[in-house]
Design goal:
It is built from three helices and 17 strands. Helix content is 11%, strand content 43%.
Length: 264
Amino acid sequence: MRTYFVFLIIMVWSLSSSAQSPSWKLIWSEEFNYQGFPDSTKWGYETKGNATGWGNNEKQFYTQRDSGNAWVKNGSLHITAQKEKIGNREYSSARLTTKYTRVFHYGRLETRAKLPTGRGTWPAIWMLGSNHGKVAWPECGEIDIMEHVGYEPDSIFATIHTGAFNHMIGTQKTAGVFISDPYSDFHTYTLEWTAKEMRFLLDGKEFHRIENKYQKVTEWPFDQPFYLILNLAIGGNWGGKKGIDDTIFPATFEIDYVRFYQYE
């Protein structure tokens, strides 16, 4: 009889704990279940060539037009880079942002995507602090959820940049992980972000973790909202480190969905 009551108490405690455990609740999503231009209530564009190549000596001109640099079809967003001269650039592409439509603060940001293939491509899923513009980079903070360079076809990377930790002084906090078939298969790239830490996951498996040491804002500017950027750069200091293969174009970064969850 005593064993039965002990078992009953354990079961009640287990069910109670389970009921009280927080779970992820979907707050915002973009499923791309339509055809045409990206939804303007969710996405804006950053355009033009940028005199400094967006700070990275990139070679593309970002557009907002109906020629196919950013187009939704077959249930996914296609960001396509093309070999064509626009302005003083030899390539065109697109850079989408939620800067003016949606910011995110603490939660789980999940993107399912298929990467472009070829030397010279540099796709990214990343975030900037919403105070960017008032506060310069890198003090505003940058969260790179996924970056890939075409000359390293078996790897993806996650990184943070801050005033204290950034690639300009070689102190960025970064980690890479092996990825299988990134060009033929979709994979899920995830950031789990709390006041205590950031966790970066590939297909549900953590490969990088950064803890908040509760020091200065130069180490942790992440206690504020951030906005999301999806882009496909060509060349640049990192993406073009081993040149650009002009036979790969058009090259497409395909995004199946973006979902943002918070604890309920």
